[in-house]
Amino acid sequence: MMTKKLVLLVMLLTLALGVVGCDPPERLRSDAELSLNPVQAAGHHIFDHQCATCHAAYSPHVYKGPSLQGMFKKPYLHTGAPANDDRVEDIIETGHNKMPSYSRILTQEQIDQVIAYLHTL
Fold first, then answer.
1. Rounded to an integer, what distance in angstroms lies between the CA atom of residue 20 and that of residue 12?
2. Cα 33–Cα 38–Cα 43 angle in degrees, nearest 5
3. How confident is the model at residue 9 (pLDDT cuts 50, 70, 90)?
4. Are 52 and 61 in contact, with CB atoms under 8 Å apart?
5. What are the DSSP calls for 2-34, one per residue?
């Protein structure tokens, strides 16, 4: 009888931790699932390899940097700057706070592709 109660308690605790615990990691979504055009798809690939370790794309979860979900649907970025292509390009090129500069890592075309992808979030 004591074993059944212990098993039940462990199951309830496991369920409670699953409901209240950490968010599961974001599932990578395919370009087809997202209905991306070729430019956005290229930006998606770059984002997954260069940005996703610090920024969430499809959830409000904060990693090392702010979530980018819906960033162009808001009037202002997390920094307080206007949410527009020029300001986002500037942040990607020069960095901000703990975010490093990507001006020597990404070409201008790649930055434009990432920005096109960010518009889909």
1. 12
2. 80
3. very low
4. no
5. HHHHHHHHHHHHHHHHHHHSPPPPPPP--HHHH
The residue-averaged pLDDT of 33-60 equals: 89
Q: Where are the domains of the chain?
A: 30-118
Tokens read off for 70: 């819906």
Burial class (CB in 10 A: 0-12, 13-18, 19+), 78: middle
Thinking of the domain 30-118, which architecture would CATH place it in?
A: Orthogonal Bundle (1.10)
106/121 Cα distance (integer angstroms) = 20
Backbone angles phi, psi at 98, to 5 degrees: -85, -10
Longest dimension (CA), the chain: 68
- Whether the pLDDT of residue 84 is over 80: the answer is yes
CB atoms within 10 A of CB 34: 15
In the chain, count H helices and then E strands. 5, 0
Residues forming a β-bridge with 96: 99
pLDDT at 21: 39
Residue labelled with tokens 């703990």? 98
